[in-house]
Amino acid sequence: MTSLTRDGRGAAATRGGAQEWTVASVGEWLRSPVAPYYLVLVSATVLTGLGLVMVLSASSVGSYATSGSSYTVFLDQLLYASLGIGLAVVASRLPVSWWKKLAWPAIFVALLLQALVFTSLGVGEFQGNNNWISIGGRTIQPSEFGKIALVVFGAAVLATKRRVIHRIGHATVPLVFPFGIVLVGLVLQGHDLGTAMIMLAILVGMLWAAGLPAKWFLGVGAVAVAGVAFLAAGSANRMQRIQVWIGGICDNPHAATGCFQKVHAEWALADGGWWGLGLGESREKWGLLPEPHNDFILAIIGEELGLGGTVAVLALFAVLAYACYRIVSQAEDTFVRLAASGVMIWLLTQAMLNIGSVIGMLPIIGVPLPLVSSGGSALVAALIGVGLLLSLARAVPGARERLSPRTSRLSRTLAALPTRRTTVAGTRGTRKRSGSTHSATKPGSSRRTAPPPTSRAARGRRGASPARSRGPQGRTGRRGR
């Protein structure tokens, strides 16, 4: 009995020690400089993969009804995901110096593309918005790429003005005036209030991260709230959504206009319960819930995968947010800190607006869930943003050396070369000063050496010249070889 008790205590102690060791190892890894890089990579990869699976499930019925194939929407999403992943790989390999150089071209290209919406390339109004252009038979939403242009441009401008950021004129020109206001104004001209709100959040968040005094944000916040209220009041569709959100008129989804989508999203989440109906078993995607594969894909995730699926999505965005925070807190370059802040604000603000709309905490705003919802432009732009985050994570002190062991070994080798050259140069100087000789032979052949001459005449009799001398004998001569 005593032996069994001792064995049990020993096993318990062993398990306790293993658990403590595991927790300590995880904590140590999270504190390492490479943790943000891998956290961004893993969370974004899982969200993108989950999004592809759920787009296939949520769009299969509607896609079959419109095109005769259950895979039409999914194949388009897969194509855009492949393009976005390729661009993300390229973006992750670009050094920070290149991102700084791309700041000004990016903002001008973003303004040009957004202006094309109001030309013959524009596809016209769709679901109340006019923010798409058609190029080569494909529709593109320029405002999605305007977000990343705004992040890179804002980080570059504010980094150069870090010493005068406390002056409101230097802080807002040219980021807010004229480029930010013009870009947001063009988006609002297309009636896309949700995207404009995300852009404004990027601008305000980056100014905060840059260190603009807090007193200025009181005025900015008041102006922003007043502007959103004015734009909402001027649109019957937006006022209807706000009334549906706070009016309590949706007990019957058919009783009031605008309740149908909100109520069916809540029903989808309720039907999923704790464990879900199973992958592909959604009922709401059978023509009941509008946009099940786009803005309301989280409702389908909750219905098919249950509470665990929705919590997993929230946890993945939390991991992404933590990784961005680590980049911001550890970076020494001001551009890196501000760009990471901008991408974090962009992705998390958009995720919160989408999730709040689906669960009823916010009025329906109409923005996709980053990396998950269907939509080519949104997915490609978000993946480029992830690539930018990976590039910034590589710039964290100590991360590049550990992420690129081959490059590190090459750097160490190149760093050692000047030392060897210095040694050889010093040896050659010793040769000239000593004036001794040895016979020149090929490597690996036998070599007979003569004793060092004791006088210039003796050296002349032996026929040796200082110019042909390969090095003195002795310890220095062996080192010179």
TrEMBL record:
Q: Main role?
A: Peptidoglycan polymerase that is essential for cell division.
Q: Specify the taxonomic lineage.
A: Bacteria, Bacillati, Actinomycetota, Actinomycetes, Micrococcales
The record's similarity note reads:
Belongs to the SEDS family. FtsW subfamily.
Region (Disordered) residue ranges read 418-481
- GO cellular component terms, semicolon-separated: cell division site; plasma membrane
Question: What keywords were assigned to this record?
Answer: Cell cycle, Cell division, Cell membrane, Cell shape, Cell wall biogenesis/degradation, Glycosyltransferase, Membrane, Peptidoglycan synthesis, Transferase, Transmembrane, Transmembrane helix
Q: Which residues form a coiled coil?
A: none
Keyword Cell cycle attributed: yes
**Major enzyme class:** transferase
Record's bilayer topology term: Multi-pass membrane protein
Q: Where in the cell is it found?
A: Cell membrane
Q: Where are the transmembrane segments?
A: 37-58, 78-96, 103-124, 144-161, 168-187, 193-210, 217-236, 296-323, 335-365, 377-396
Its domain of life reads Bacteria
Protein's pathway? Cell wall biogenesis; peptidoglycan biosynthesis
Q: GO BP, one example? A: peptidoglycan biosynthetic process
Task: Specify where it is mainly localized.
Answer: membrane
Report the InterPro entries cross-referenced here: Cell_cycle_FtsW-rel_CS (IPR018365), FtsW (IPR013437), FtsW/RodA (IPR001182)
Identify the EC number(s).
Answer: 2.4.99.28
* Comp. bias (Low complexity): 418-428, 463-475
Reactions catalysed, as given in the entry: [GlcNAc-(1->4)-Mur2Ac(oyl-L-Ala-gamma-D-Glu-L-Lys-D-Ala-D-Ala)](n)-di-trans,octa-cis-undecaprenyl diphosphate + beta-D-GlcNAc-(1->4)-Mur2Ac(oyl-L-Ala-gamma-D-Glu-L-Lys-D-Ala-D-Ala)-di-trans,octa-cis-undecaprenyl diphosphate = [GlcNAc-(1->4)-Mur2Ac(oyl-L-Ala-gamma-D-Glu-L-Lys-D-Ala-D-Ala)](n+1)-di-trans,octa-cis-undecaprenyl diphosphate + di-trans,octa-cis-undecaprenyl diphosphate + H(+)
**Which GO molecular function annotation, any one, does this entry have?**
peptidoglycan glycosyltransferase activity
Q: What is this protein called?
A: Probable peptidoglycan glycosyltransferase FtsW
